[in-house]
Predict the structure.
Amino acid sequence: MVRSVGWESRERPGSGGGIMTALPIVPDYRAQSPAVRDRFQRILERPVILSVRNLTKSYVAEDGTRTVFSGLSLDIRRREFITVIGPSGCGKSTFIRIIAGLDEATSGEVLLDGKAVAGPGPDRGMVFQGYTLFPWLTVRQNVMFGLEMRGKARVTAESEAREWLDMVGLGKFEQSYPHELSGGMKQRVAIARALANEPRILIMDEPFGALDSLTRCKMQGYLLQIWKQVDVTILFITHDLDEAVLLSDRILVMGTNPGRVVEFIENPVPRPRTSAQMIAPEFIAMKHRLDELIHPPAEIGEEEKLPMIRLTQAGEDIE
Ligand SMILES: Nc1ncnc2c1ncn2[C@@H]1O[C@H](COP(=O)(O)OP(=O)(O)O)[C@@H](O)[C@H]1O
Ligand SMILES: [Mg+2]
């Protein structure tokens, strides 16, 4: 089933037939090493935390009813790391807003630990792309907020908040205000604040989308470390293919018009993960498959020519 990794000459799309470039032959993205296969078998023995059954969302627009997505069904097991990927507008945010209880489905249901979700609750922690910390509260007060809302005594909330901040490496910044922190640090506080409520599932909507690429890489490493230490299941939305492959156990690929599940894939990249794996054959195979699903072949090589005016006599000898 696994094709060997090598190189072949392939004609580049749009090259007019003249230029040949070497592209690697990668293994089949469905091929799993025995260790990876065993891990997925063990995951199947764990209880289902989140169950989504035939979920459909539509809304009434001026020109009639529009379907955002239809027929979404999936089960997520305890401590799985699931990423959702798909083109902009396919309904990823709407999907998780429904899971979070911030929006209502038109039909179908979401079960958390077997109970139907009806409105927001502390059993689902949220982290969004935008910075959502309260600017008038210190870092520690931000983390304490949900704990006190749930009736914990101030001293307990304080010491628990400190523990969570230590966990994300920000113990020293507990007295700082959000505006004194970098973007990456703010998102670490947001993660600490979400986890402090001990949610069953942590739902993250493009949480690193506003960060520069170096900070983003560091945050991915931190998140993997945190997930290893905390008993939490993660549902993570991204549009970054590398991020999806680096982080997740399974990847839910959504299509658009209307939104739907295209494929729910078991990621063949073994754990523990490091950024060094980004050039491993199975990583490239997985990423290539995602790229194929998100940018269907018809679109590849059909780039529109820009109406360029020649400004210099630079020539075309650049490839
Ligand atoms: N209740 C609603 N009213 C109007 N438009 C909606 C509603 N719910 C979702 N949409 C639209 O559905 C589409 C999907 O949005 P979204 O979930 O944000 O997609 P994604 O996160 O994948 O980019 C968007 O065009 C959004 O404006
Ligand atoms: Mg979105």
Observations:
- Helices lie at 34-44, 92-100, 139-149, 154-167, 183-196, 213-229, 241-247, 281-294.
- The chain has a mean pLDDT of 90.
- The chain is about 30% helix and 25% strand.
- Residues 19-123+200-297 form a domain with the Rossmann fold fold (CATH 3.40.50.300).
